[in-house]
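It is worth pausing here to work through a concrete case rather than discussing structure prediction in the abstract. The textbook approach is simple: state the sequence, then state the predicted structure, then interpret. We follow exactly that order.
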Amino acid sequence: MLLEISIGINPIIFQYKSLIISWHGFFTMVGVLVSVLLVARWAKKENISSEIVYSVAIWGVLGGIIGARLVHVIDRWDYYSQNFGQIFTLWEGGIAIYGGILGGLLVGSVYAVLCKYPVRKLMDLTAPAVPISMAIGRIGDIINGEHCSRATDLFFGWYYTHLDSPGLQCILNSEVWSNGHFPAGTPANTSVHPAALYEFIWDILGLVLLVVLRGKLKPIGSLWFVYLAWYSFGRFMIQWIRLDRVYFLGFQEAHFVSLVCFVFSAIIIGLKTRRNTDN
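Step two, the predicted structure:
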């Protein structure tokens, strides 16, 4: 292997008694904060006050946190059913990005509708900010070793050496972490696909696409569905190298959600979206 990276960083930044702050949680928080500030800045150019953005963001973030944790817990219910108290230790990590996206969209949109805010404009403003937030969050995933992935036979890969890293536990405790994919005795330095890095790259490419298309599509709100279709397609493909719980015919939870989101977005784009010729 020409490029084999060893990552031995402690996934925990700070710990005091039961309070644990992980790199994953820290970068997720930074990503959310950056995206909210960016949307507030962009909104001013559309004559939308930053107060509106912040108020919607509060509810959107709350919905995103609940949704992200809920989907993660459902996917790993075999573990959380035996460790019920761990469901609420969100600061230790363990979220599902789809739950965050859909939960944030649902709760934020409902709040915006009730307050009679321009929901579709806010959706388009938020679309480029989401991949920025996700890319920042993936930095924490990379450091922590989140998301078990298959062993790689490509010329590049990575492995984790810190005992508390989920990336190492994927191999050492395969029955719990990666559904028994790694047989007992698998070397701890087995290189795996850098799935989190793949998603980071896909997020950046999606950001470029959204920036290019911003202001060039109608009706208002179309850019959000372009983002959702883009992310769903990439996530569906990347999910094949991740080792989450398999539900049916090799399909994991994220496969089903990706498929539904992509088909729904593609239908909306196909039926409604047109190039904006007014500019």
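Step three, interpretation. Residues 50-75 form the longest helix (26 residues). The mean pLDDT is 89.
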